[in-house]
Amino acid sequence: MTMDETDATDATENAATSERERLLAAAEIFVREALAHDSSGHDWSHIERVRRIAQVIAREERADSFICELAALLHDVADVKIAGDTATGLARVRGWLDAHRCDPPTTARVMEIIATMSFAGGERPPMTTLEGKIVQDADRLDAIGAVGVARAFAYGGAKGRALHDPAQAPRERMTAAEYHSQPTPTINHFYEKLLLLKDRMNTPYARQMAERRYQFMLTFLDQFYAEWDGRS
Ligand code: ADP
Ligand code: NI
Predict the structure, then answer these.
(1) Closest Cα to residue 82, out of 52, 46, 118, 28?
(2) What is the whole-number distance in angstroms between the Cα of residue 6 and the centre of ligand 1?
(3) Beta carbons within 10 angstroms of residue 14's beta carbon
(4) CA of 177 relative to ligand 1 center, distance in Å
(5) Which atom of ligand 1 is least distant from the CA of 148?
(6) CB of 140 closer than 6 angstroms to any ligand 1 atom
(7) pLDDT single digits (tens) 72-120
């Protein structure tokens, strides 16, 4: 390559980098606004953590960090709890990407991840791309461990639910409607979902993180029952 060609390549790369930074900064503003009035556990701090965890996993798994970061930022905008329905939410995200001149391949990759993550009803289709697997892992990791415990009780509190009720056993099989409608004590949510998530990680690095967070939740539950019974 001649000097001029090297300069030209550098200039193209710099333009691509600043283009990515421009999109990420704009996405941040868009998402902060979209989630401003949420009380279902999908606040901005959740997005920030998912973005951070996704970047850490992306580095470890040698994935495309920009796609992970952009999808992590946008992943909850199309959630039914925020958008009302998934189709409207997905159209909103696509409209936003188009309006911000996101290039078509990036738009397609990000939309595929978000559509799979927002899938409501029945079995969720599996993630097909490494970046999708990573963002899904990051989202699931944020539901477990110390932050997961805090989020579960925050959610239960917002719904006016009991912390714990020894007379009410966790539900093993349930329909999606039952899952979302029945008032269950928050401790039950650990058995119905949170303790199961470590076996649903897609990537090896996330599995290691999930194992640590899982062990912490077991410790938390032991201590919780000990205190509940006045044993500790
Ligand atoms: P996602 O959209 O990622 O599947 P949810 O919307 O189900 O997650 O939950 C958002 C947060 O609220 C998570 O931290 C989750 O553990 C918590 N949460 C959801 N349902 C319950 C519940 N019934 N009891 C306690 N916490 C819950
Ligand atoms: Ni999320």
Answers:
(1) 118
(2) 50
(3) 10
(4) 14
(5) 14
(6) no
(7) 999 999 886 777 788 999 999 999 999 999 999 999 999 999 999 987 7
Cα separations in angstroms, 98 against 108, 111, 153: 11, 11, 38
Among 44, 76, 82, 151, which is best to mutate for testing ligand 1, by the most ligand atoms less than 8 A from CB?
Answer: 151
| Ligand 1, atom nearest to 152 Cα | 26
**Residue whose token pair is 């029952």:** 225
Query: Going by CA atoms, what residue is nearest to atom 26 of ligand 1?
Result: 152
- Per-residue pLDDT of 17-71, as tens digits, reads 899 999 999 999 999 998 887 766 678 999 999 999 999 999 999 999 999 999 9
Residue that the structure tokens 């579960």 belong to: 152
Tokens standing for residue 50: 């998912």
Residue 175 has which token pair?
């329909």
Q: Could you tell me the pTM of the whole model? A: 0.91
169: its two tokens? 């056993």
Protein residue whose Cα sits closest to atom 14 of ligand 1 = 143
Ligand 1: does its nearest atom lie under 6 Å from the Cβ of 78?
no
The Cβ of residue 94 has, within 10 Å, a number of other Cβ atoms equal to 18
Q: Are 147 and 49 in contact (CB under 8 A)?
A: yes
Q: Give the distance from CA 163 to its chain's centroid.
A: 24
CA 199 to chain centre: 16
Pocket probe mutation, ligand 1, options 123, 159, 189, 200, max atoms within 8 Å of Cβ: 189
Kindly report, residue by residue over 116-134, the tens digit of the pLDDT: 998 776 677 899 999 999 9
